[in-house]
């Protein structure tokens, strides 16, 4: 397939996301890193690699607008070296923030909440000698989907492998490749992301439209 003449214009606020033409997949790709999310109305492929993190792929199945995020909950709250499961905990609030921010963006650019469909990936236990961060992320996201009444169409969660995800918001297609050999770059990125979360707890609240 011949490359189109121009990269589709990103929605306002997403100019920092790395996007490029990929000859192998014959399409424009937006690469989502830990802590990022991206929403598009174009025929683009959204991709990320998750280990213990979660990636939620969400779209309006009628209007074809959708997005992908990549997040992890902090592993401790304030000075407590443990998980907190209360409605006001920083960990839960961070996960809600990661989800609600992207959902709000989908609604802002023409999506309708009743048309939203969700697919979930990640939460792997990629390092046996570490706390099972992936399982905590899975518990959070499954509870969040149920509480918010969102439609969950598919999931590939847990196990011990990192995953490479390709998501097509226009039609909802997802391709997942489990990486059988640990890629050091995955671990390095997620560890750096986790440390940053612990140093900079979330402030403020997000409300769904």
Structural notes for this entry:
With 209 residues, the protein is an alpha+beta fold. The chain has a single domain (18-199), classed as 60s Ribosomal Protein L30, Chain: A (2-Layer Sandwich), CATH 3.30.1330.200. The chain contains 3 helices and 10 strands, in the order ββββββαβαβββα. The chain has helices at residues 90-108, 133-148, 184-199; strands at 18-22, 27-31, 37-40, 45-50, 54-60, 66-69, 116-122, 151-157, 163-168, 173-178. The strands form 2 sheets. Strands 1-2-4-9-10 form a 5-stranded mixed beta sheet, with no helix packed on it. Strand 5 (54-60) and strand 6 form a beta hairpin. The longest helix is centred in the middle third of the chain and has 19 residues, at 90-108. The radius of gyration is 17 Å and the shape is globular.
């Amino acid at each position: 397939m011949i490359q189109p003449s121009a990269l589709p214009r990103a929605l306002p606020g997403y100019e920092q996301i790395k996007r490029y033409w990929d000859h192998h997949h014959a399409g424009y790709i937006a690469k989502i890193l830990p802590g990022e999310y991206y929403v598009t109305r174009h025929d683009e492929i959204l991709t990320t690699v998750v280990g213990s993190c979660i990636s939620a792929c969400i779209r309006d199945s009628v209007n074809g607008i959708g997005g992908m995020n990549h997040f992890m909950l902090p592993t401790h709250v304030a000075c407590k070296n443990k998980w907190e499961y209360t409605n006001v905990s920083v960990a839960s609030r961070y996960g809600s923030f990661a989800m609600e921010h992207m959902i709000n963006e989908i609604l802002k650019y023409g999506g309708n909440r009743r048309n939203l469909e969700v697919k979930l990936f990640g939460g792997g236990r990629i390092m046996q000698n570490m706390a099972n961060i992936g399982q905590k992320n899975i518990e959070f996201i499954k509870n969040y989907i149920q509480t918010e009444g969102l439609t969950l169409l598919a999931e590939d969660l847990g196990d011990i492998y990192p995953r490479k995800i390709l998501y097509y918001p226009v039609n909802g297609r997802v391709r997942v490749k489990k990486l059988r050999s640990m890629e050091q770059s995955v671990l390095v990125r997620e560890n750096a992301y986790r440390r940053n979360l612990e140093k900079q707890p979330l402030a403020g609240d997000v409300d769904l439209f």
